[in-house]
């Protein structure tokens, strides 16, 4: 799947929202604005995984931190 940016005058581009809206299993829980306003967008397990990945990358001197 390739995502293309939207440019002026161009036909509507494929977006992630379009992709998910077309899926029968997808049910939107939050609007984009509500999601951006959440204090913590990750649950406890997701945050623990993110912390573990960050610690491993930090210990390896990753330039992506």
From TrEMBL:
Name the domain of life this protein comes from.
Bacteria
InterPro entries recorded = YARHG_sf
The entry's protein name is YARHG domain-containing protein
Name the source organism.
Thermophilibacter immobilis
